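Ticket #4471: structure export looks truncated?
Reporter: QA, pipeline team
Priority: medium

Steps to reproduce: submit the single chain below to the structure queue and open the exported record.
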Amino acid sequence: LQALAVIAGEKIPASAAFNCFTPTPQINKNVKIDAAGLVSDPLSDPGVKAAIAAAEQRLSGAGRIVIRKSGTEPLIRVMAEGEDRKLVAAIVDELCAVIEKAAR
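Actual output as written to the record:
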């Protein structure tokens, strides 16, 4: 209520007062895995771990990466977000390719 009182008192639009969120591009992709035929967890593969670390460095603090197994489907979910949409798309595509290779 105090925030509304300030907005009313200052006569500024609420959109200007609460303009503190800047959306960033986010890309999500799923990598299908044959859970029955897997010998080991693709996310524990050294090549996958190295690719994730390299991708995080490429974002250099201007985004984030989330990779996790689906709890209900034989999928690994890959999500990245950041200020540069082309970079984010390239990172997601590269990570998906590395995970697919490790899952074979």
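Status: closed, not a bug. The export was complete when the record was re-opened. Leaving a note from the reviewer for reference: Residues 65 and 80 are 4 Å apart (CA to CA).
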